[in-house]
Amino acid sequence: MSAPRQHDIRAVLFDLDGTLIDSAVELAQALNHMRAQRGLPTLPVERYRPHVGSGARGLLPIGLDIGPAHTAFEALREEFFDTYAQCLGAGTQAFEGVAPMLQRLQARGIRWGIVTNKIERFARPIVAQTPALAHCAALVAGDTTAHTKPHPEPLLEAARRLDIAPAHCIYVGDDPRDMQAGRSAGMGTIAALYGYIAPGENPAQWAADHSIQAPMELLQKLGID
């Protein structure tokens, strides 16, 4: 895909964690609280950060050495969710540059929304508590539709809510599943390389149409001064 032309793009959809917001601090707080309850020392936020994009499946093996195949995983995941709910608002913030980038999109008449695998229980309050995200035109969470990314259904639902054809949308995310979902939905894709890139991941292999190193670079890709 060549550089997207501004007049072709009517909406930009974003992943949430690692693309618009840095939620690693709150997630680390929740996991470290669980570790403390078990007599384990806390781990630094940076130990968790690369795995945030994988949710509980990626974080519990780091925090508690328990993977999805373990018989205790489901119970620990629910405990993690309950603990995380108590930490909401304690440290999540928009990445630097997100607020002015979104303001510029709006000024040019380009609508924007969020498509995340984070369940609505967490996604909606986080969006509501983050000033930069106040004008989100559509929020599709991990339990809004029958499928989660990399299935295209959540992205197509967001486009439907915006009443904009998928071909006139771009999806921005920091995970290969984001790029796969965007392609399958018929949208242009942009990889956010400043996000939570998991160990061993090579973004060059994600087949994204474009990539950005900072939120404001998106404006350059769209030809917005």
UniProtKB/TrEMBL annotation:
Cofactor: Mg(2+)
GO cellular component: cytosol
Species this chain originates from: Vandammella animalimorsus
Keyword set, alphabetical order: Carbohydrate metabolism, Hydrolase, Magnesium, Metal-binding
SUPFAM superfamilies per the UniProt record, alphabetical: HAD-like
GO biological process, one term: DNA repair
Stated family: Belongs to the HAD-like hydrolase superfamily. CbbY/CbbZ/Gph/YieH family.
Pathway involvement of the protein, from the record: Organic acid metabolism; glycolate biosynthesis; glycolate from 2-phosphoglycolate: step 1/1
Protein name from the UniProt record: phosphoglycolate phosphatase
Catalysis performed (reactions): 2-phosphoglycolate + H2O = glycolate + phosphate
Record-listed E.C. numbers: 3.1.3.18
GO molecular function: metal ion binding; phosphoglycolate phosphatase activity
UniProt keyword Transferase present: no
InterPro entries: HAD-like_hydrolase_sf, HAD-like_sf, HAD-SF_hydro_IA, HAD_2, HAD_sf, PGP-like_dom2, PGPase_prok
Enzyme class, UniProt record, top EC level: hydrolase
